[in-house]
Amino acid sequence: MFLAMSAIQTWTLAIVGLSFALYIGIAIYTRTSKRSEFYVAGGGVHPIANGMATAADWMSAASFISMAGIISFQGRDGSVYLMGWTGGYVLLALLLAPYLRKFGQFTVPDFVGDRYYSRTARLVAIACALFVSFTYVAGQMRGVGVVFSRFLEVDVNIGVIIGMAIVFFYAVLGGMKGITYTQVAQYCVLIFAFMVPAIFISIMLTNNPIPQLGMGAALKDSGGEFLLDKLDGLSTELGFAAYTSGTKSMQDVFFITMALMVGTAGLPHVIIRFYTVKKVKDARMSAFWALLFIAILYTAAPAVAAFARTNMITSVSKKPYAEIPQWFKTWEDSGLIAWNDKNNDGIVQYTKGDAFKGKPTFQEDAAGKPVTGTHGQRLISNEAVEGTNELYVDRDIMVLANPEIANLPNWVVGLVAAGGLAAALSTAAGLLLVISTAVAHDLFKRTIKPDISEKGELFAARIAAFGAVIIAGLLGIFPPGWVAQVVAFAFGLAASSFFPAIILGIFSKRMNREGAITGMLVGILFTTSYIVYFKFINPAANNKDSWWFGISPEGIGTLGMLFNFITAWIVSRFTPAPPAEVQAMVENIRVPEETA
Fold first, then answer.
1. Which pLDDT tens digit goes with each residue over 399-434?
2. Which domains does the chain have, with CATH numbers?
3. For residue 339, what is the enclosing H or E element?
4. pLDDT tens for residues 42-79?
5. 97, 157, 315, 591: which has the fewest Cβ within 10 Å?
6. Counting runs of H as helices and runs of E as strands, what totals does the chain give?
7. CA distances from 381 to 73, 358, 376 (A)
């Protein structure tokens, strides 16, 4: 076992180390002292490269680590993340990217401030950008900690600090220019890392090398039984709902999907990528290439979820702990999986319900060493929950543990670790740049100190990035939820704040500053209050019987968006129209570039 574990750690260190060296090398090569290169990479990135960087920016730890984990636990209900996050890119390509690129500013607060001719509108947009970005980056830092805690066998908090140091280095040194080309490399790493194990496991289970087809194929040596049929049977036998059935209400599925779609189109770190190309046509092509690159991972995620769920259940459930595979005990050491032997029979019982309250806290002796039970398992301090379930599994480990569960070669395990880190760090870097830009450019340059020099502005941006890294690290150490859930909240906040202001700013000449400001405040305050109440103030009431119209906190951003639209429209009709030059600017934004 020791030799096997040493091999896994050696491969992980080697592959992760090489990928980090590549990222740092790119950062050094692309370092910049020019403002336009720091903010928008000089505006000359090729659409294919920009599409690849956008895909890496968008496919965060939530996409790589957590989305398949959600689907593996929720089955069909998890499809809302697939539909929402991919559908959002269609909205982005058709409704936002070309118009914002033609507008020609660096950031979303820039657009909001100039379009709504208001310093207050700019400040509200800055506040929304910071709030959304910090919520989102919390999920990325959590993902970094999960990867490091297992594969490099360090504490989760140490893993977060290592990730902070790496992303700070190349984000601060090269700005958007360094981040863009680093993200191209990170996309190559993460997509290779995601697809290689998916292909291997698909062949092992179904003899089909295409995971997307293997999910619906018959299992090898099963007499024609299909994978999903077997998974349905395993799930219902253990007391879960059938894997291919759904438990969410139609309205909640709609609201979550819509929040994710419009949230994607309103995320500031995604929108800023379309300022890095030369022309409006290039912005459209960037969106096309990004969608293509994203689709490779997203169409494979349901297959990875089904493979991981099937392998996990068959290798763990109703097995004596003494016969449990080594991967289980290794992940147990990381605190991301735990067994609570309620009936003291030495057999792992996995059924519906919680094994104990909260996340596992393992017992340690005076020397800080783990205390083990009769069967050799790690003993936990948490209070047991009534019921038959004895197993706790953090859903964020499903993709990362998948190669070990399937007994794939050690180098594949290390590759997946590198892919998870690439996904988390690429998005974290984009978010940190948005935060630093919002502070240095939108707040200092455009609001507080317009006469600041270009050198001073870049210095302020780097200081802001440093502060953002510290806050992001704290959010990673004390995360407000599992990765994809936290990210879903960020999308809801973006949907309820930015999206209406941007859409109305492009397509309504009558929309004025009073309407936009009031709408943004109503949208984000309502959405934030709803999420905070059900997730933090009164989590006991977080169920469909207590939700407004049966809408969960993950989907409430859609209702917040509707409140934003309605408020903005009403207020704009009772307040003065925008100046003539602003209305002319709106008209010009919508004129195709070739005839402008």
1. 888 998 998 998 998 899 889 888 877 777 777 777
2. 2-312+408-595 (1.20.1730.10), 337-393 (no CATH)
3. strand 337-339
4. 566 788 988 898 888 778 777 888 888 889 988 888 88
5. 591
6. 23, 2
7. 25, 11, 16
C-beta of residue 30 within 8 angstroms of C-beta of residue 42: no
Please name the residue that has the structure tokens 């870097």. Answer: 429
CA distances from 347 to 282, 358, 375 (A): 59, 22, 9
Q: At what angle do helices 67-74 and 79-91 cross, to 10 degrees?
A: 140
Average pLDDT, the chain: 83
Is 378:362 a contact under the CB 8 Å cutoff?
yes
Q: What is the distance between the alpha carbons of residues 341 and 589, in angstroms, rounded to a whole number? A: 64
**Confidence label for 105 from pLDDT (cuts 50, 70 and 90):** low
Contact in structure between 314 and 407 (CB atoms under 8 Å): no
Per DSSP, what are the bridge partners of residue 541?
A: none
Q: Is 372 helix (H, G, I), strand (E, B) or coil?
A: strand
- C-alpha dist (Å) from residue 113 to 105, 142, 212, 294, 504: 10, 33, 45, 31, 14
Give dist(CA 162, CA 39) in Å, integer: 25
For residue 252, give the 3-state DSSP assignment. helix
Instruction: Enter the tokens of residue 158.
Output: 């140490």
Distance CA 595, CA 205 (A): 56
Please report the pLDDT score of residue 4 as a whole number: 46
535: CB partners within 8 A, 6+ apart: 480, 481, 489, 542, 553
Confidence of residue 191 (pLDDT cuts 50, 70, 90): very high
Helix, strand, coil shares, percent, the chain, to 5: 75, 5, 25
Closest to 490 measured CA to CA, from 430, 540, 549:
430
State in Å, rounded, how far the first CA of the chain is from the last one.
Answer: 68
Q: Which helix (H) or strand (E) element contains residue 289?
A: helix 280-316
DSSP H/E element including 337 = strand 337-339
Residue 21 has pLDDT above 50, yes or no: yes
Question: Do 407 and 394 contact (CB within 8 A), yes or no?
Answer: no
CA distance 432 to 142: 15
Task: Output phi, psi for 337, to 5 deg.
Answer: -150, 145
**CB hemisphere CA count around 506 (13 angstroms):** 20
Tens of pLDDT, residue by residue over 252-311, are 999 999 988 887 766 667 777 777 777 777 877 887 888 899 889 999 999 999 999 999
| Alpha carbon separation from 152 to 10, 65, 83, 417, 431 (Å, rounded) | 9, 17, 34, 9, 25
Of 482 and 148, the one with more pLDDT:
148
Mean per-residue pLDDT, 444-471: 80
Tell me which H or E stretch contains 149.
helix 119-151
Query: Rounded CA gap, 389 and 239, in Å?
Result: 10
388: number of Cβ within 10 Å? 14
Residue count of the chain:
596
